[in-house]
């Protein structure tokens, strides 16, 4: 119960950050495809390699990844770095005290992030997709990074090797009678290992996995729901005819 309360508090903190960012840029639409097993598997690999170093997903067990087409042996060989047991939950190895000293706050649990971060700008997946793609170099920050969707964020750009390093290009725009500098584009300082299109696809896979992780039973629930509705519709026909036959003689 204590762990659940702490996770909810952390999620609320992330929601506050997302809502604060809503007054800024528009969120891009995330390419969520929770039925695409290849995308989910790539997203799980990215999550374990780049997110799980600092962020936990304490309500997700590694063996649940069998639902996206992985065998337990594949999970053990490719995704288990912090534990030897496939039945363990996804917990980060980082020391919470050190994390607070480095980033100003303990990195929140990400199990429900894709659902908790929804706002007026779109879904939680939309926010994450925008957030992870709008980091840029800012030497004035302690981490050396800033973010367009979450200004002055304490998190560095963990995907910088894939994306490369970028700096914002500013343009002067008149607002309320005053000239202000707004970001109008990007200047690539150092190339990443992926092209911009490949990077967007990789982030889409990562967000897709996080959307699935927030509710692994969602696809099953939808499928079962469709069959339940069809059953109720068919039952309605029989009940209607039975009702007519029952009251026929009474009338």
General description of the model:
- The structure is a single chain.
- The chain has 251 residues and is α+β, with helices and mostly antiparallel strands.
- Helices cover 47% and strands 16% of the residues.
- The chain has nine helices and six strands; from the N terminus they run ααβαβαααββαββαα.
- The strands form three sheets. A two-stranded antiparallel sheet has the order 1-2. A two-stranded antiparallel ribbon has the order 3-4. The chain has a two-stranded antiparallel ribbon with strand order 5-6.
- The radius of gyration is 23 Å and the shape is globular.
- The N and C termini lie far apart (60 Å).
- The model is unreliable at 1-13 and 15-22 (pLDDT under 50).
Could you report the average pLDDT, rounded to the nearest whole number?
85
Q: Give the termini separation.
A: 60 Å
Rounded to the nearest angstrom, the radius of gyration is 23 Å
- Outline the biggest β-sheet: 2 strands, antiparallel
What percent of residues adopt helix (DSSP H or I)?
40-55%
Molecular shape:
globular
Order of helices and strands: HHEHEHHHEEHEEHH
Q: How many β-strand runs? A: 6
Strand order of the largest sheet: 1-2
């Amino acid at each position: 119960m204590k762990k659940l309360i702490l996770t909810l508090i952390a999620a609320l903190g992330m929601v506050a950050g997302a809502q604060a960012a809503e007054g800024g840029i528009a969120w891009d639409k995330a390419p969520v495809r929770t039925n695409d097993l290849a995308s989910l598997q790539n997203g799980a690999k990215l999550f374990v390699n780049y997110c799980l170093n600092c962020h936990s997903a304490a309500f997700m067990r590694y063996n649940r990844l069998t639902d996206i087409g992985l065998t337990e042996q594949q999970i053990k060989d490719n995704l288990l770095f912090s534990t030897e047991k496939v039945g363990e939950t996804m917990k980060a190895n980082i020391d919470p005290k050190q994390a607070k000293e480095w980033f100003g706050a303990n990195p929140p649990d990400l199990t429900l992030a894709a659902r908790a971060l929804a706002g007026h700008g779109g879904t939680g997946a939309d926010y994450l997709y925008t957030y992870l793609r709008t980091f840029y170099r800012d030497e004035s920050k302690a981490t050396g990074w800033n973010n367009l969707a979450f200004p002055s964020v304490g998190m560095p750009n963990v995907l910088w090797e894939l994306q490369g390093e970028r700096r914002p290009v500013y343009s002067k725009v008149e607002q309320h009678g005053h000239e202000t500098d707004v970001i109008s584009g990007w200047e690539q300082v150092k190339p990443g290992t992926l092209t911009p299109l490949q990077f967007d696809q990789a982030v889409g896979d990562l967000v897709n996995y996080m959307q699935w992780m927030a509710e692994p039973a969602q696809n099953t629930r939808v499928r079962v729901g469709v069959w339940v509705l069809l059953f109720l519709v068919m039952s309605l026909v029989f009940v209607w005819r039975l009702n007519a036959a029952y009251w026929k003689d009474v009338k």
